[in-house]
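Ticket #244: bound-state structure for NAP.
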Amino acid sequence: MTTPQKTALITGANKGIGKETARRLAALGITVLIGSRNTERGEAAAEELRADGADVRFVPLDVTDEVSVRAAAEHIDAAFGRLDILVNNAAIAAGPQKPSETLAATVRQVYETNVFGVVAVTHAMLPLLRRSAAARIVNMSSELGSLAHQADPGSPWSAYYSILLPYCTSKSALNAVTVLYANELRPEGILVNAVSPGYCATDLNRHSGTRTPEEGAAVVVDLATAGEDGPTGAFFAEDGPIPW
Ligand SMILES: NC(=O)c1ccc[n+]([C@@H]2O[C@H](COP(=O)([O-])OP(=O)(O)OC[C@H]3O[C@@H](n4cnc5c(N)ncnc54)[C@H](OP(=O)(O)O)[C@@H]3O)[C@@H](O)[C@H]2O)c1
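RESOLUTION: The complex was predicted; output attached.
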């Protein structure tokens, strides 16, 4: 079964920037699937966003669990027959800890969500995205993942580079993953981009961010709804491209 209505899946959308992205995409008339690893939190977010008449639904999804990822893809296939927008938003951080004191196990744990989770979800959803007339994939990266910034001793983010190796390098890897998907999928008209929402106050940074999650969602929505002449294989903040 396929429906004319556009459908978007956002991973880790039960709170933070993912939830605000869901709110904004739903306000555009898109059916939004809130991917959440926790049923109660996922249902609560979907219910909150449905309050203003939007079509928002909860889909159980733990991006580190292949069975959960496969089940989500099967559910979306049965309910909609395709997927138009995938926002790989779910992420975790670890630390603070100096790079020299960071264990491989800690890095592995962060990569399971921030890198391997993105690959698992993208791989599972691609058959559905390929059935869309204009599929878009947006990967939630961070300026902390920019190698150009990491290599710049004067970077405003250097304090973070010295204590957040797992998170920062996971976003660098995610940027590379983004480019390689974009290269392959360009001829099919599937646009794949990485975005940085800016420093937003969420649970991820114990609400120390200076922007709101609503503000952070703006660039995600822009790329998720880009026209066919939109960018692909790019890395964007709200005010323009970020150096890799
Ligand atoms: N906040 C910032 O300043 C900032 C800056 C740059 C980039 N970002 C990026 O923006 C994205 C959203 O972050 P946020 O700040 O909104 O953080 P957040 O409020 O902590 O939200 C993270 C979301 O990811 C979910 N999640 C974590 N592990 C998961 C898993 N295995 N499966 C499914 N969902 C999982 C969390 O679910 P639970 O509720 O179950 O934990 C939560 O819904 C992340 O990719 C982050 O790296 C944020």
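RESOLUTION NOTES: DSSP finds eight helices and eight strands in the chain.
TICKET STATUS: resolved
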